[in-house]
User: What shape does this take?
Amino acid sequence: MRILIIEDEIVIARFIEQQVQNISPSFEISIAISVDEVEHLFPNFMPQLVICDIELNDKLDGIELLRQLKKSHIFETVFITSYKSMNMINRAFEIEPLNYIIKPLDENRLYAGILPAIKKIKENLPQPATDLNETISQSELNILRLIAQQKTTREIANILNLSPYTIKNHRHNICRKLRLNDETNALLKWSLKNQHLLAK
Assistant: This one.
C-alpha cells in the first residue's frame, strides 16, 4: 500500500511514518512537507492513503489541498489537526475522510486513527493481477493504461490507430468485464485507483 504523509514539521512526519511502519513494514511511504512537494510527488506516487495535517502554514491548508487533488485523483484520507472547532471538522468531512485525529499525537492515537483506514482500503483492493490478465485482453490493458493517463477516447484512438467508435466498444466491454457501471468516468476512476495492476 502506498501512503503519503503531508506534514510541515518533519519531526512529526517522521514520527507518523514510524507508527505506520509499525502497522506494516511493507507499506511504501512518502513524506511531503510543503504543498509544492505534494504537487510534485503525487502524480508519480499515486498514494492510496493520504495522512494529512490540516494546518500546513503554506499557500493552501490541508483541506483545500486535498479537495483540489481529489478532482483528478482517487485516494482515501486521514486528517490530523490541533484544531477542535466544529467548523474545521465540518470543512474536513466535506471531502469524506476515513478518520480524523486530534493532536497531540501519540502511538495509540495514531494506531487507532490509521488502522481502520488501512483495513478499509485493503478490503476494497481489487482482484489480483493474475485474475485481471485472465479477464482483460492485452489491447484492453493498453487502453486502460492510456485511460489512467487521463487520455480521451479520441486521443486513445489516435495513439492506437483505431477509430473512436472501436475505442468506445472496447471501453464498454472493459466496463462489463470489470462489472463497472457503463458511465463516463467509471473506467477513469477504476484505472486511477488500480494503477498498480496496470504496471507493465
Summary: The mean pLDDT is 87. The two ends are 18 Å apart (CA to CA). The first strand starts at residue 2 and ends at 6. Residues 51 and 78 are 5 Å apart (CA to CA).
